[in-house]
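Q: Given only this backbone (132 positions), what sequence would you predict?
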């Protein structure tokens, strides 16, 4: 098989392998998560595993880039069930929606500020200790 059909078939197979690798990492995280000493959701464990594999070079970005890009392009689609689920809480959102938005906004700002402070603290050069 030569030409455009072979190229399309190779691209499809490569995409399937990349998605398979990402799904495999997710499944591994689902197995590992209940056995960790800290209660972490499996999706967070999966992201940490992927970050570890990428940072150590065991997995290269090129090996998963197209598959991850596909998920990123269609990210809004994954939030549709969440939005539909919120409809069940319409009365709660009408009554407490503004307070919830305020809490979410303030906690997000506090998290960003804390991350920025810690980042600048960690990146500042160490000060020499004064000798007595």
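A: Predicted residues:
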């Amino acid at each position: 098989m030569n030409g455009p059909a072979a190229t399309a078939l190779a691209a499809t197979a490569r995409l399937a392998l990349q998605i398979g690798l990402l799904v495999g990492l997710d499944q591994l995280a689902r197995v590992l998560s209940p056995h960790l000493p800290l209660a972490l959701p499996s999706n967070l464990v999966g992201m940490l595993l992927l970050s570890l594999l990428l940072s150590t070079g065991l997995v290269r970005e090129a090996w998963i880039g197209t598959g991850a890009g596909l998920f990123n392009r269609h990210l809004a689609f994954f939030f549709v069930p969440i939005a539909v689920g919120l409809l069940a809480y319409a009365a709660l959102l009408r009554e407490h929606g503004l307070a919830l938005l305020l809490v979410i906004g303030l906690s997000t700002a506090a998290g960003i500020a804390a991350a920025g402070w810690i980042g600048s603290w960690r990146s500042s050069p160490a000060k020499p200790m004064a000798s007595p």
